[in-house]
Design goal:
The complex is a heterodimer of chains A (172) and B (589). Chain A folds into two domains: 79 residues, 2-Layer Sandwich (Alpha-Beta Plaits); 69 residues, ACT-like. Chain A, domain 2 (Alpha-Beta Plaits, 2-Layer Sandwich), CATH 3.30.70.1150. The radius of gyration of chain A is 18 Å and the shape is elongated. In chain A, strand 2 and strand 3 form a beta hairpin. By secondary structure, chain A is α+β, with helices and mostly antiparallel strands. Chain A is built from four helices and ten strands. Chain B folds into three domains: 175 residues, Thiamin diphosphate (ThDP)-binding fold, Pyr/PP domains (Rossmann fold); 168 residues, TPP-binding domain (Rossmann fold, 3-Layer(aba) Sandwich); 172 residues, Rossmann fold, CATH 3.40.50. Chain B contains 23 helices and 20 strands. In chain B, the strands form four sheets. Chain B has a six-stranded parallel sheet with strand order 3-2-4-5-7-6, sandwiched between helices. In chain B, helix 1 runs parallel beside helix 7, helix 8 crosses helix 13 and helix 10 runs parallel beside helix 13. The radius of gyration of chain B is 25 Å and the shape is globular. Chain B starts with a strand and ends with a helix. Classes of the chains: A alpha+beta (172), B alpha/beta (589).
Chain lengths: 172, 589
């Protein structure tokens, strides 16, 4: 599981041209060179010419430097920043459906502590959502497991540099 | 500005790029583009298989330094150029490939002759484009040529749907103006100029080394850096090894040229790298065929690594100084920096190192035994005679296998751009189409294609192209009736258990086949006939020539580093093994 303290995981923020097939190029590169993607999130930026892909990579599979250099060789990749946990704000969203027939009040208590939300309710199930730092989501997910998770979906990490902390641009 | 349709615009764009020849094959989706070719100044060479078109474009690019261009239709034609694209990708060959595609509305419907060309070729091109509007054609072609030829060169594919080049489609018409066509590549700015601080650091390492070697790769040729390299060598007195991709970048006849290193490199080149205290890698990438087992490769060497592609730095071997730059510019900067540091007057004395190297050269020359009476030819002998009887700046192409290694070993390459082969991908059948492409680009030069019988049968049909298009290449077919390199491995590592490596000396009848394809053909079976037939072939300049040299099947390429072995485990020619053992004993004791 992704943990910010996990030294083998690094977050790359990759600015790419907003063109057909760019995500496939990035994904192909990782597959072809045997690099592991831990999570990946992609969306347009405020400039319609570009999209931003936030990739959490596992550097056990290859040195970060090689991954960055190979990524930057893709013609459509415009800029790559490494976002360290200390110098960036990170968020992730999780939605989970939990079995709540027996311990609904305990689950609700956790929802309260974590400031999560209830999205749907039935007699035996609760669907909850939590937005927050990836480590907080990890903790929440681990606690929910005790009650039985039917389904869980996480978005993958998105991140931006902290205001006032210049981003570490490792290729541009 | 002229109003024209996409097809005309595509051909006009190629003309504007200065393209003189396109190697291609028409078909359904690319049909509209073939109409304006009739009036164009661009020469079209009609190949017999799309793979041939791709390798011809590569051969043309290798020989001329200009980007090679090939053009084929959609579907199976596009998949047939995948091999040349992959070949060009691994050997950094500048090439633009234009493929037809089904009409935009049909893409994704599994239409006739549809395939996902940009998807299939993504990992074997430097970049590819699917053009969706006719008016984007000029800018895309301009970008394709720019990407293919700048930075680390490579193949670029442009996929063009049929409807945007269809003169009957009103949307395919637009005002064409190549000058103002815009390249929009915000993510592409290849590094070119060396960082001079790093250059000075490199110069510092050079001045401290006592056993340095210049490890020269294909990047020097791509950068047109042979002259700068000569200056650097003359200034420093450092010996040079030229990799399979760099043969000719430094003249073999020069006293400081050690020849080819690697799996079939000569003893001196391999051991110079092994014993070196400083490898100056110029445009080379520490390929596994050079390093052997990585842990045992050049254990005491520091490394200066100049490469225009920064991703090559530290990929295989950690560099002490890594310079991301064009090799010619970096070499020139090194010369300047070393002169400022007092070279050549204050340069270190490398005499001890050079004596060691020349001692090895004397003890371990390349060697083979001439055929005995009645025996068929030795491939090494054939190549020596071809070499000695060829005009000085003859261009040599080869396929892949034993004949390729013998050619690289026994030819004497004294000029850049005279050796064209498939080094990275190792594509059998490369030789003949590459020779056609080289000759199309360099019509005044003699072009010898050295080929094996396995390779010949893969792409021989392009001799019809050569005959029809009057591109008179010469083919030296070393027919040993075997897939010689595979046989060598089965002999050495599979206890001589030969599996599926026997072809035949007689089937096909190569002379008849070559004649049927419009070539003059000869067969040579004994050493005394060799010179006369080569001389005859050298005089024929109106048609392609094929000489079938009947060779023995027993020759092995030596020296050899066994796959997975360390370069220290080099297997030399049987006649030199005692000398090798003595050297190993004395260095161990």
């Amino acid at each position: 599981m992704t943990r910010p303290g996990d030294l083998s995981h690094h977050t790359l923020s990759v600015l790419v041209e907003n063109k057909a097939g760019v995500l496939a190029r990035v994904a192909d590169l990782f597959a072809r060179r045997g690099y592991n993607i831990v999570s990946l999130a992609v969306a347009p930026t405020n400039d319609e010419r570009f999209s931003r892909i936030t990739i959490v990579v596992d550097v056990e599979s290859a040195p970060l430097e090689q991954i960055v250099k190979q990524l930057f060789k893709l013609i459509n990749v415009v800029e790559i920043q490494e976002l360290s946990p200390e110098a960036s704000v990170e968020r992730e969203l999780m939605i989970a459906t939990v079995r709540s027939a027996r311990d609904r009040s305990q689950i609700l208590e956790l929802v309260g502590i974590f400031e999560a939300r209830i999205l749907a309710v039935s007699a035996e199930r609760l669907t909850v959502s939590l937005e927050g730092r990836p480590d907080k989501i990890d903790d929440f997910e681990i606690l929910l497991r005790d009650y039985g998770i039917d389904d869980v979906q996480r978005t993958g990490r998105i991140a931006l540099p902290k205001i006032g902390k210049p981003p570490v641009i490792i290729s541009s | 500005m002229t109003r024209m349709d996409g097809a005309q615009a595509l051909i006009k764009s190629l003309e504007a790029e200065g393209v003189e020849v396109v190697f291609g094959y028409p078909g359904g989706a690319i049909l509209p583009v073939y109409d304006p070719i009739i009036e164009s100044s661009v020469r079209h060479v009609l190949v017999r298989h799309e793979q041939g078109a791709g390798h011809m474009a590569e051969g043309y690019a290798h020989a001329t330094g200009r980007p090679g261009v090939c053009m084929v239709t959609s579907g199976p034609a596009a998949t047939n150029v995948v091999t040349p694209l992959a070949d060009a990708m691994l050997d950094s060959v500048p090439m633009v490939c234009i493929t037809g595609q089904v009409a935009l509305a049909a893409i994704g419907t599994d239409a006739f002759q549809e395939c996902d060309t940009t998807g299939i070729t993504r990992s074997v091109t430097k970049h590819n484009f699917l053009v969706t509007r006719a008016e984007d054609i000029p800018g895309t072609i301009k970008a394709a040529f720019y990407i293919a030829t700048s930075g680390r060169p490579g193949p670029v594919l442009v996929d063009i749907p049929k409807d945007i080049v269809d003169k009957n489609n009103p949307d395919a018409w637009f005002d064409f103006d190549y000058e103002t066509a815009h390249i929009d590549l915000p993510g592409y700015s290849p590094s070119v100029e060396p960082d001079l601080t790093l250059v000075d650091e490199a110069a510092q390492l050079i001045s401290q080394a006592s056993q340095p070697v210049l490890y020269v790769g294909g990047g020097v040729l791509k950068a047109r850096g042979a002259e700068a390299l000569m200056q650097l060598v003359e200034l420093t007195g450092i010996p040079v090894v030229t990799t399979l991709m760099a043969r000719g970048a430094f003249p073999d006849e020069h006293e400081l040229c050690l020849g080819m290193p690697g799996m079939h490199g000569n003893y001196t080149a391999v051991n110079a790298m092994q014993k070196s205290d400083l490898l100056i890698a110029l445009g080379s990438r520490f390929d596994d065929r050079i390093t052997g087992k990585l842990g045992g490769f050049a254990p005491d060497a520091k490394v200066i690594h100049v490469d225009i592609d920064p991703a090559e730095h530290d990929k295989v071997r950690k560099a002490d100084v890594a310079i991301a730059s064009d090799c010619r510019l970096a070499t020139e900067a090194l010369v300047t920096s070393l002169k400022a540091a007092g070279y050549p007057d204050d340069r270190p004395d490398l005499q001890a190192w050079r004596s060691k190297l020349s001692g090895w050269q004397e003890t371990f020359p390349l060697t083979y035994e001439q055929s005995t009476d009645g025996e068929l030819l030795k491939p090494q002998y054939v190549i020596e005679r071809l070499r000695d009887l060829a005009p000085k700046d003859t261009i040599v192409t080869s396929g892949v296998g034993q004949h390729q290694m013998f050619a690289s070993q026994y030819w004497e390459f004294n000029h850049p751009y005279t050796w064209i082969n498939s080094g990275g991908l190792g594509t059998m059948g490369f030789s003949i189409p590459a020779a056609v492409g080289a000759k199309a680009g360099m019509p005044d030069r003699t072009v010898w294609s050295i080929d094996g019988d396995g390779c010949f049968q893969m792409t021989a049909q392009e001799l019809v192209t050569a005959a029809m298009e009057k591109i008179p290449i010469k083919v030296a077919l070393l027919n040993n009736a075997y897939l010689g390199m595979v046989k060598q491995w089965q002999d050495m590592f599979y206890e001589e258990r030969l599996s599926e490596v026997h072809l035949s000396h007689d089937m096909p009848d190569y002379v008849k086949w070559a004649e049927a394809m419009g070539c003059v053909a000869f067969r040579v079976e004994s050493p005394e006939e060799v010179d006369a037939v080569i001389a005859k072939a050298n005089e024929i300049n109106d048609r392609p020539v094929v000489i079938e040299f009947r060779c023995v099947n027993s020759e092995k390429v030596f020296p050899m580093v066994p796959a997975g072995g360390s370069n220290d485990d080099l297997i030399v020619d049987p006649s030199q093994r005692d000398a090798q053992a003595r050297i190993q004993e004395s260095s161990a004791s």
